[in-house]
Write a structure and sequence with these properties.
binds nicotinamide-adenine-dinucleotide, 4-stranded antiparallel beta sheet, oxidoreductase, ACT_dom, D-isomer_2_OHA_DH_cat_dom, alpha/beta, binds 3-phosphoglyceric acid, 7-stranded parallel beta sheet, EC 1.1.1.95, Rossmann fold
Length: 380
């Protein structure tokens, strides 16, 4: 992988000696991370497969690839809205059950096709929950396809808000999405708030014949409630990226096997983004696109940089500064940023004496509240 540069080997070290993992959606919740592991790059958007809290406690910086697969998901979602509207799943099943000559099947088709007459998406209302990298793209393109678009996202990022067409109407209550939409799609992470958003309480508010989509996470849907509201005609069609035995033989449900982000383009984008973040972190200590540590970018102009991951408690910076001063070293630059319970420090030193630097490192390693210490030597 060229993004990692010549100083890194890929796949040729035992797992418990690796400094970095790059992964997709495999579950790490029961995994014991070795002390060698410094970072994990999730080559995708969702990171609920990674025990982020545990990683923070161990000083492991977790990166994801925001937006890297957003176009792929958007295209599939738009396709699935049309697929559901045009009854293509039951129509295809009906057609494949026809027997006879081409001529007799043609006759049956012309007679029987009216049973599958669909609806156009143009002019209809789509409600989008979550206007991040994917939701904002779905919103803009649905609008271009002639739809009226309403969106709900109480935590929308400023950059995303700027990118969204002024024709997209933002609603402030989730219930408005369920009450007003002909199509509903969700593009949020799985959180306590989004868990089972698709359940009876909200289905009850929907128009009869709504097309519902879930290409975010399985646990967003309460499956028993979903089947009940398909049965009573409220939900005309459900398209999802997450399978269940309950779904496979239901004509009103289409399931793809977690393919939203599975295109050649998205896989390459995400892997490159994760590899770039990891490479930058390992070689410069800088952090971009981390899900558990703040963004810290600072050019290295000194012979040595020490990076510290510490608990976000009072006096840590003062403690760092006094340890440096005790060694008679001059600080060239210091950046400290906190996020939640943890903080990250880049400490650039005007010092070339390696013995002094190593003593300082040992002091830091022995300090309370400092979880991880790394030394980076400026390449000349
Ligand atoms: N099916 C797939 O293959 C696939 C691919 C990519 C992402 N995903 C899923 O889609 C999710 C979204 O991806 P993204 O790239 O757009 O992420 P993103 O972080 O760019 O956007 C998520 C958006 O959801 C919003 N949000 C969070 N909680 C919310 C809530 N309770 N109500 C409304 N909005 C809320 C956030 O403010 C943010 O704008 C991912 O977390 C992942 O679970 C699935
Ligand atoms: O969150 C994501 O990016 C998607 O769920 C894609 O997961 P994948 O990398 O396993 O395809």
């Amino acid at each position: 992988m060229e993004e990692l540069g010549k100083n890194f080997v890929v796949d040729r070290v035992p797992e418990n000696e690796a400094q970095a993992f790059i992964c997709r959606a495999q579950n790490f919740h029961d995994y014991k991370f070795s002390d060698h592991l410094l970072t994990i790059g999730r080559a995708g958007a969702g990171f609920n497969n990674i025990p982020v809290k545990q990683c923070s406690e161990q000083g492991i910086v977790v990166f994801n690839a925001p937006g890297g697969n957003a176009n792929a998901v958007k295209e599939l979602v738009l396709a699935m809205m049309i697929f559901g509207s045009r009854n293509l799943k039951p129509a295809n099943k009906w057609l494949s059950d026809q027997v006879g000559t081409d001529q007799s099947i043609d006759l049956a088709v012309e007679k029987g096709k009216k049973a599958f007459s669909g609806k156009e998406i143009s002019g209809k209302t789509v409600g989008i929950i979550g206007l991040g990298n994917i939701g904002s793209r779905v919103a803009n393109d649905a609008e271009k396809l002639g739809m009226k678009v309403i969106g709900y996202d109480p935590y929308i990022a400023v950059e995303r808000a700027w990118e969204i067409s002024s024709h997209v109407h933002r609603v402030t209550h989730l219930s408005e999405i369920f009450e007003q939409s002909d199509y509903i799609t969700i593009h949020t992470p799985l959180t306590d708030e989004t868990h089972h958003i698709y359940s009876a309480e909200n289905f009850e508010k929907m128009k009869k014949g709504t097309v519902l989509l879930n290409f975010a996470r399985d646990e967003i849907t309460n499956k028993a409630d979903l089947l009940e509201y398909i049965e009573n005609g409220t939900i005309k069609y459900f398209a999802t990226d997450f399978g269940s035995e309950l779904f496979y033989h239901n004509d009103a449900i289409f399931v793809s096997p977690h393919l939203g982000g599975s295109t050649a383009e998205a896989s390459l984008n995400c892997t490159k983004m994760a590899a770039n973040s990891i490479q930058r972190y390992l070689t410069t200590g800088e952090i971009i696109n981390s899900v558990n540590f703040p963004r810290v970018v600072q050019e290295l102009n000194s012979p040595y940089r020490i990076t510290l991951i510490n608990k976000n408690v009072p006096n840590v910076v003062a403690h760092i500064a006094s340890r440096v001063s005790e060694e008679g070293i001059n600080i060239a630059n210091i950046v400290n940023r906190g996020q939640g319970d943890y903080a990250y420090t880049l400490l650039d030193l005007d010092e070339t004496n390696e013995t002094k630097i190593q003593e300082l490192m040992s002091n830091f390693k022995a300090s309370d509240n400092i979880i991880r210490v790394r030394l980076i030597k400026k390449e000349i």
